[in-house]
Each structure stands twice: as C-alpha cells, then as structure tokens.
Amino acid sequence: GAVVSQHPSWVICKSGTSVKIECRSLDFQATTMFWYRQFPKQSLMLMATSNEGSKATYEQGVEKDKFLINHASLTLSTLTVTSAHPEDSSFYICSARGQTYYNEQFFGPGTRLTVL
Amino acid sequence: GQSLEQPSEVTAVEGAIVQINCTYQTSGFYGLSWYQQHDGGAPTFLSYNALDGLEETGRFSSFLSRSDSYGYLLLQELQMKDSASYFCAVVDDKIIFGKGTRLHILP
C-alpha cells in the first residue's frame, strides 16, 4: 500500500522560533498533499491543500504567512510554522493523494508540536 | 460549505454490534469515508462509499444513502481494541472530517 512519512514525529521548541515539518510519499507520486491540525479530543481540521509546483490553497482562518507550505516535488511537502507560540502546539498530520488513488488519501503518522 | 454530524460518544459491550451514524451537508460530494483513530495515533482508513448501499469489510461495514445525505459505520463482534475515535469524512476535491465519535467498549 501507499506509505506517507512525516519528520519529525515530535518536536519541542521555544516560543518565537520556526519549525519545519516534512511530509514524504515513499512509494507513490503525490500530486496533492494536505495538511491537517488536530487539537486534543477534537477533529482533524484541514489547514491547506498543496499541489506540486503551485501555491498552496489555505482554508478560511488559516494564516498563510504563519504556516508556510512548500510542495516542491511529487514526493515532498513541507509545513513551516513561523514564530511559533504556545497556541500553535498541536498534532499536525499530512496526507497525500496520487493520480491512481484519487478518492483515497494516505495519512502520515503525524507530528506533535509543543511550543514552550 | 460543508458540515457533518455524528454522535460524540457511543458505548457498547464487547462482542456486541454498534452503529455510528453520520449525516452531511456538502456543496460537492464524491463519497463518504470512515477513519479510525486511536489516542496519539494518526487516522487509518476503514472504508469508502461512492454509491448507495452497504460495503462489507470483515467485521466492519459501511452504508451510504446519497439521497438522504446519510451514512453509517457498523462494527460487529466488538473487541476491546476497537475502542477508538471514528470519523466520517466527506470526499470531494479534499477530505473534510466530522467531529468524531468516541467509542467506549465495556468488557
């Protein structure tokens, strides 16, 4: 089956620093990648959709200057949380979709971000 | 916009059958998916219904009625390991998740 990895799996940083999270599709080409955020005991909230080689489309209420998304290749997308603050602490999950799996998204294992 | 409704919590006994309902309102719709998520883990795909009817995969079945904008997940022969959160999700150009149903299983 299709595998998606994320790195790091967890990160702790100081307030004001920036954190980069990588999402990779390991055995398929991901034409579209999605970034979700999940707070404890809540649902997954879609943050943005990124297509390879083009700018990401952000959901309403998500600050594009704070959450920078880059999808430079068909196997890699990155999410950078800039000037992180404690309220950004959350579980960030990416998912990927390829041309042969149009109706299915494959999720990464998630990255737990804690901002002190 | 899109909205999905599902119960916040359901409790059932080990070995029993439980049904988790989901109603949705969407502007676009390809199908309805169900995901399972254990505490601390990422969601895992359970099923996808694009057409009306029942899809069975082992102990899990999923049903869709497009005309009623309704679906459900049926879990049979419940096991303790099935204790988790279950999310219905509308599949369009992206996947939008419902708020999730926490399933508690009693021995």
Task: Supply the key terms.
heterodimer; A: 116 residues; mainly beta; seven-stranded mixed β-sheet; four-stranded antiparallel β-sheet; 54% strand; globular; B: 107 residues; six-stranded mixed β-sheet; five-stranded antiparallel β-sheet; 59% strand
What does this structure look like?
The complex is a heterodimer of chains A (116) and B (107). Chain A is 0% helix and 54% strand. By secondary structure, chain A is mainly beta. In chain A, 34% of the residues are buried. The mean pLDDT of chain A is 91. Chain B has no helices and 11 strands. In chain B, strands 2, 4, 5, 9, 10 and 11 form a 6-stranded mixed beta sheet that branches. A 5-stranded antiparallel beta sheet of chain B has the order 1-3-8-7-6, with no helix packed on it.
What's the structural blueprint in terms of helices and strands?
The complex is a heterodimer of chains A (116) and B (107).
Chain A lengths: L3 E4 L2 E4 L5 E7 L4 E9 L5 E8 L5 E2 L8 E7 L2 E6 L8 E9 L7 E2 L3 E5 L1
Parallel strand pairs in A: 2-11
Antiparallel strand pairs in A: 1-3, 3-8, 4-5, 4-9, 5-6, 7-8, 9-10, 9-11
Chain B lengths: L2 E3 L3 E5 L4 E8 L5 E7 L6 E6 L3 E5 L2 E6 L4 E6 L8 E8 L3 E3 L3 E6 L1
Parallel strand pairs in B: 2-11
Antiparallel strand pairs in B: 1-3, 3-8, 4-5, 4-9, 6-7, 7-8, 9-10, 9-11
User: What helical percentage do the residues of chain B reach?
Assistant: under 10%
Report the principal-axis shape of chain B: globular
Name the structural class of chain A. Answer: mainly beta
The average pLDDT score of chain A comes to: 91
Q: How many individual helices of chain B?
A: 0
**Sheet with the most strands, sense and barrel status of chain A:** 7 strands, mixed
Could you state the order of secondary-structure elements of chain A as H and E? EEEEEEEEEEE
Number of strands of chain B: 11
Proportion of residues in helical segments of chain A: under 10%
The low-confidence runs of chain B, each spanning 5 or more residues with pLDDT under 50, are none
The CA-CA distance between the termini of chain A, in Å, is 37 Å
Secondary-structure-derived class of chain B: mainly beta
Largest sheet of chain B, if any? 6 strands, mixed
Distance between the termini of chain B: 41 Å
Strand content of chain A: over 45%
